[in-house]
Amino acid sequence: MRGAWRFRVLVGVAVLTVAGCGGGGADTAAGQGTGVDNCGRAVRVSEPPKRAVALNQGSAEIMLALGLADRMVGTATWTDPVLPELAEANAKVPRLADNAPSFERVLAVEPDFVAASFESVLGTGGVATRERFEELGVTTYLSPTDCGTKDNSGDGDGVRSTALTMDDVFREIRDLAELFDVTERGEQVVAGLRERLDTATRDLDASGVSILYWFANSESPYLAGCCGAPGVITGALGAKNVFDDTRAEWPQVNWETVAERDPAVLVIGDLTRKSQTAETAAAKIAFLESNPVTSRMRAVQGKRYVPLSGQALNPTMRTVEGVEKVAAALRGFGPLG
User: Which positions fall inside the Fe/B12 periplasmic-binding domain (predicted)?
Assistant: First the structure.
């Protein structure tokens, strides 16, 4: 069985090599197939993938939203429960690991396509590099939210030279829809997300409201810089991120500096994973209210907390959920400027 699969993927290498010689978005040699430009490389498929693996929850939920569960053979690296409306479809897809799986575990399900939300997973030090997968004929795709104007070469979560927008997420949805030949469904998903954004922000003026975004870790907290998914939320609401003076995605900042900036509202990650301290919203709130430095902050004293899933704080289609929940909370808090 493994030998037969190796023969199939080696044939796939030959097909992809021929396809890669042409320009544009299709296999020019045979007039078939399709492709997209992705993070500086051409991704081409001679036919829609049939055995896809999503290495991050964000990629998995996009595939599920596109109706691709029957073409998925694995998911991995989850921070939160799946969206309720995708739960039935997700139950049909094996979870290879709650966190990053081994390269061997992914290969065991014989994928023909692997997608990831983050270069840290689909790159050096992650599950495997794109080149390693492609040597075996496995097509790879990296979310455009994590490349291009984002530098991932340092030790942290990357630095952005240009602010992320929801258009970057919409491009990922459309790219995957193109590769899997479900473009109409892709446009429906994008249209639905746009409508939700418009509804959430209509007639809301949050100018003058300062917000802090805390993802995880109580000893040396990961707080949002200006330009990732929290920047999309802040910009949509017209508010201000108290750490908008850093382009690092999730810099670690000490609590004394946080207290000095004294945000009016605290948006906090409510995660179900167990890799950092203070993962859940409840653990974060308990820390904030018991720590002598943070307990004096006006957001803590006013109990102005907005719990968000990790996926809403990552560049995914659930960033729209982040906009909705923060907008609703701001309306409930009343004037804060």
Answer: 51-334
Question: What pLDDT, on the 0 to 100 scale, is given for residue 19?
Answer: 34
Delimiting residues of CATH 3.40.50.1980 domain(s) in the chain: 34-157, 203-332
Note whether 301 and 318 are within 8 A (CB): no
The listed CATH number (3.40.50.1980, 3.40.50.2300, 3.30.1360.120, 3.40.50.300) that belongs to domain 34-157: 3.40.50.1980
pTM value? 0.88
User: Encoding tokens for residue 228?
Assistant: 């990732």
pLDDT < 70: residue spans in the chain: 1-32, 337
Instruction: Please name which of 41, 36, 35, 111 lies closest in space to residue 76, comparing C-alpha atoms.
Output: 111
- Residue with tokens 């993927």, as numbered in its chain: 9
Identify which of 186, 184, 148 has the alpha carbon closest to the alpha carbon of residue 62.
186
Half-sphere exposure of 101 (CA within 13 A, CB side): 23
**Which H or E run includes 178?**
helix 166-179
Whether residue 21 contacts residue 42, with contact meaning beta carbons closer than 8 Å, is answered with no
CA distances from 195 to 79, 92, 311, 317 (A): 26, 29, 19, 13
| Tens digit of each residue's pLDDT (9 = 90 or more) over 241-266 | 999 999 999 999 999 999 999 999 99
Record the tokens describing residue 192, joined without a space: 């639905």
Q: What are 308's strand-pairing partners?
A: 269
Provide the CA 106 distance to its chain's centre, in angstroms: 20
* 3 state SS of 90: helix
Burial (CB count within 10 angstroms: exposed 0-12, middle 13-18, buried 19+), residue 253: buried
Supply φ then ψ for residue 256, to 5 degrees: -65, -40
